[in-house]
Amino acid sequence: MPDHDTDTLVTADWVEDHLEEFQSDDPEYRLLEVNNPTVTADSEYTPYEEGHIPGAIFFHWKEDLSDPTTRDLLDKEAFEQLNAEAGITEDSTVVLYGGGRVPNWFALFAYWEYTYYGHEDVRVIDGGKPYWIEHDYPLTTDEPDFSTHEYHARGPFERIRAYQNDVEQAIDSGVPLVDVRSPEEFTGEVIAPEGLQETAQRGGHIPGAKNVPTTSVLDDDGTFKSPDELRALYDDVGITEDQSVITYCRVGERSSIEWYVLRKLLGFEDVENYDGSWTEWGNRIRAPIETGTAE
Questions:
Q1: Which of 22, 166, 182, 291: CA 20 to 30 A from 11?
Q2: Which active-site residues does the annotation give?
């Protein structure tokens, strides 16, 4: 497992050493398993009810962290209520993990949302739930019941979030766009990964975008590649840390993974996640798109 110089990425060993704190009613430490079981039903994902890290609370990505009516993030009041009911305060150390077709697929969307609302100490387990299970760390079926607390969000902080007008401006000004979807989605051969609902009318990618698939940032065991290897992936498509960057995918979750890589693991100063992503852009009338491989 590569050594990343950041306290936002923790190892399974670190979590195991803090299991007592995660199971305590004291809100100093809170552990969250974040996933969307309907998306990962065909993957090697152990449902929360069948086994999770001791002390972990479950958040459903779509039902708990999103507004199903607006297909948007939770508003500030709803985000505060969600955390308060889970026994989390704004001073808690919140550690996230999940499974999925890509480890931490939805957990890193939660990380981005916590950052958007200004939570100061939020971390993610390198390798997520697959790594935890593969290496025989402890699991339980006991579900915690923590006391409720008040939660006060400092955000939102819009500088980490891109909207469609930001993407339009990026196209005009040459700001790099990183499309983290599979090559088949990028070229327009398919609109969504196999087994997922197609949520756009057209296939392809945003003009000028570079394709760096999410799977390329991970080692075989699901942990992140070394900083040198990660930086080389972006160097190869002409993206360097002196630039502003926008990441996107289909609905904004996979792109949160590479937002995290660029901002937290590589230290890029200006990275935004376009959470509207291809679902929004591919459905817009007259929105420009490209198909096929990038030049």
A1: 182
A2: 249
